[in-house]
Amino acid sequence: MEKRIHYLDWLRLLAVFLGLVFHAGRPFDSWSWVIKGPEIGWLSYFNEALTTVRLPLLFFVSGAATVFALRRASARDYALDRFKRLIIPLMMGVLLIVPPQQYIRRLTLDPHSPQHFEGNYEQFLTGPWWGDGSFLLGSLHTEHLWFLLYLFYFSLLALPIFLYLRSPQGLGLLAGLERWFKQAPWRIWLLVITPTFLGALLPLGLGSHPGLAEDLANLGFYFQLFVLGYALYLWPGLQSVIFEQRRNFLLAGLGLVLLKAYLYVAVLHRSLIVSSELLPYHELYWSLRDLAALSLIFAVLAFAKQFLNQPSAFLNRAHHWVYPFYIWHQTVIVVLGYFVLKLALPAGWLHVLLLVSSLVVTVLLSELVQHSAISRFLFGIQRKMSTKAGAPTPPSPQTSEANPRN
Prior knowledge:
Blueprint: H1 6-25, H2 41-50, H3 54-71, H4 75-97, H5 99-108, H6 121-129, H7 146-165, H8 168-183, H9 190-205, H10 210-234, H11 237-243, H12 246-267, H13 279-307, H14 313-318, H15 322-340, H16 347-369, H17 373-378, H18 397-402
Helix pairs in contact: 1-3, 1-13, 1-15, 1-16, 2-12, 3-10, 4-7, 5-6, 7-10, 9-10, 9-13, 10-13, 12-13, 15-16
């Protein structure tokens, strides 16, 4: 039986849990969201710091997991598996999980807004959500499930790269990189600097369209993380050079993320985020984001391998929650938050109550999904596995080179 990389399971759980922590704080920060309550000043800084690493970590770990998904699959089988595990949950979520968020959003709008709605949920579904005389299903939104859609796109776009990397030529390239990095360990920082440099170039050519530049810079960075995660776990020798500098990556990442959070909250006003006059600040912001995210990811990987690479009865159970937890969590927060924010409690207690209650309900719903073949299919969960099963270690470089799959 193949051995699991337990710390990658822990990191996937951490990434989706941080998503819940982030969104449970959104009603109390200084930015607009689906529901809003009394502001808690420090949460704006905390959420800005948190968002630096949670999505980059999720894309990186998804790339690493692709090593296992592709290990015994043809390109066609891999694409079909991605469709079943990403697009089907996306369609299900858009039709069943997301609409309560849209309903509550409309309920809480100013009564003078043309989008404001008063009525029960059934009236919403048969009215504005269905089309309300304009066009069919005009209120369909992906909300937080955009991640599933873009991960599907990334999986297909990166497939030729992955097939090349696992070929003899690609494995030779990775082996050469390992030797080059080990000759001068400082060179490993190029893995941090290069995506940052590429991301900074894009807005320079789109200065008159800062919103588009920001979107493309984000997606380009996430795509690079996805590919980097695959490469590092296809050829584990590259990891050793990174892990030797884990303390330097941790210190750099923490300093950069604090500077980024201060810049965004104190200098860049959210309503001016697409202002072309602020382009130099955005250049700095995106660069800090990329440098901080990669530094922290490398540090987290190293320390997780050192302290979390052990089997756990909880982990055997909880790693099945990842997909449903991500799909459920924001809708749970919005629905519970709609009622929690009506309580006459201090803002801090409201935040704690919403965070804890959302975590409990999301875990219960994620566990409930496991008990039906239909719900497991709709939520993109692979067939039930034994308590000892899981994601195996990546193939050794020698095994991969001897048995390339094209």
